Amino acid sequence: MPIEYIRSVLGIFGESPFKPVHTHAQKAVEAVHKLNMAVDAYCHGDYITVETLNTEIFAIEYEADIIKQTIRKLIPSSIMLPVDSNDLLSFLKPQDSITDNAHHTAHWLTLRKMKLPLEITEGLLELMERTVKTVDAYESTVDEIAKLLETSFSKKEIKRILKMIPIVEELEHETDITKKQLQQKIFDHEDELGGTGVFYLASLVRDIGNISDSADTAADRLRTMILRR
Amino acid sequence: MDFFDPILLAVIVAGLYMAWNIGANDLANSMGTSVGSGALSIKQVIIIAGVLELVGAVFFGDKVTSRIAKGIVPIDEIMAVDPDLVVIGSLAAIAAAGFWITLATFYHMPVSTTHSIVGAVTGFGLVATIYVDSFSIDQIQWLVLAKIVISWLTSPLIGAILAFIIFTIIRIFLLGRVSDLYNLEKKFIYLQILSACFVALAHGSNDVANAVGPISAAFCAAGVTTGGVVPEWVLAIGGIGIVIGLATWGWRVIETIGKNITELTPTRGFSAEFATALVVFFHSGISIPVSTTHTLVGAVVGVGLAGGLEAVDLSVIRKIVTSWIITVPVAALTSMIIFVILIEVL
């Protein structure tokens, strides 16, 4: 390699952590969509597809971890960001949990094969549908950060993004209600399901619930990050 | 001493080498930001920068040049005793600065050519007190030197403040109001071309002195030029050297910078460049040599502080301050050593 005879000002420009933050959010969406397919396959007794999807989600989770590490490396103390770097990191954490929880749930699905009562199947599919909606809405909000940066945090853009966050929270709330109803239904069918079945399904539902909880927390921290700048 | 004296020729060659370095790296740095935002192609940058650098050097470069030639070390006093000492001193100063810049560039240190030449010239002044009895340390213009050194601190600072203000105005009145951001940035490309021109002009007016200052002093001592003013053809030598540096190597530097700073959109680039050009051109007007590159770094930080950049790496500031502190004594010492060697040999 030839010696680079260069003195440059390039060093002053740090690499933006915001683009990988969005990629990281997209990984969460990808994982949750695949989980949705996995739950659907599970309800239809297609356990092979569940296994395949679990492997794929595991790979996504690994990629998300790598992105998270990259982002952390991009923000040493000498880097000046338009937002507080601690706020950015504390919003990244719950965002990472979305993928983590999706991965836990997918793994849990592979552990036990069981035939579900129709009411439970319907409940599970509805819960997943709402979870997907919540995470999708969350990702759209994160996508808006780019606009926020382009306008350098114009009041208009701040207002816009702050209006999007309650949508995520509302969707999470609805998901929560569905979750609670489903939990009740599981116990309603306890004779049919058996103790292990109830334990298995209750854990599954709690894991799914954690996904939109994480999206909700991440959205809330995103708001803190924007407001505190 | 006539024009074809070997020492005088050596001063010109060393000055041209310095000019080449300034064009290859400093000017390239100042212009690279325009390529990064897509405002100009590399070819366009080289043409624009070449023309305006030359204009800046020839028409506005005399003040800083004469400041470096005789404003720090009053060469008239030394010339009265032995004009050859001034020619040799000029060679020592320009060679020392050129040597240090070469070394620093290979090690990618953010060293300023301005700091190098000021240090080297001061070194010559110090060593001259040993050889000229009537010339004492008190005669070196310490007050002027202090003013210059202070301006090295204030120029990036003022650059930052100005860039902050300019970008904040753009942010409040344009970025926050227009609906079509893409179109706005596109319009700013034209403004950025103007600010890039201004940077080249300002750079020429200030930095040409780093190469031509010692040449001018040597010419004056050798009787090639007479009177107090720096002739335009002398300034043109430096300007042409800088343009050659830009054309032969600077394009590589511009390419590297342009490829890596995609973040600097035209609105941000304009803010940083316009602030830099204002500060540098102002200092040319008051005969103070400042570092364009360091001012630009300050201006970029200013845009960052105004929330215009996604990430600014402040660790560079520490590196700049370190190299700043090292450069002046190293250049001064090298200049003194070269001077002593030349005196002993010749």
What does this structure look like?
The complex is a heterodimer of chains A (229) and B (346). Chain A is 81% helix and 1% strand. Chain A is mostly helical. Chain A has one domain (15-228): Methane Monooxygenase Hydroxylase, Chain G, domain 1 (Up-down Bundle). Chain A is elongated and about 75 Å long. The N and C termini of chain A lie far apart (43 Å). The mean pLDDT of chain A is 95. Chain B is elongated. The mean pLDDT of chain B is 92. By secondary structure, chain B is mainly α. Chain B has one domain. In chain B, helix 8 (181-222) runs antiparallel to helix 9 (232-260) and helix 8 packs parallel to helix 10 (266-285). The two termini of chain B are 14 Å apart. The A-B interface holds A 3-18, 74-76, 78-82, 147, 149-156, 229 and B 24-26, 29, 32-33, 104-106, 108-111, 167, 171, 175-177, 181, 249, 252-253, 256-257, 260-261, 263-265, 293, 296-297, 300-301, 304-316, 318-319.
Break the fold down into its secondary structure elements and pairings.
The complex is a heterodimer of chains A (229) and B (346).
Chain A: H1 18-43, H2 47-74, E1 79-80, H3 85-109, H4 118-150, H5 155-188, H6 190-228
Chain B: H1 6-36, H2 42-60, H3 62-71, H4 75-81, H5 83-106, H6 113-131, H7 142-175, H8 181-222, H9 232-260, H10 266-285, H11 292-305, E1 312-313, H12 315-345
Helix pairs in contact in B: 1-2, 1-5, 1-8, 1-9, 2-8, 2-9, 3-8, 4-5, 5-6, 5-8, 5-12, 6-8, 6-12, 7-10, 7-11, 8-9, 8-10, 10-11
- Strand content of chain A is under 5%
Q: How would you classify the helix and strand content of chain B by structural class? A: mainly alpha
Please trace the helix and strand order of chain B, writing H or E for each element. Answer: HHHHHHHHHHHEH
Terminal CA distance of chain A: 43 Å
What is the overall shape of chain A?
elongated
Total count of domains of chain B: 1
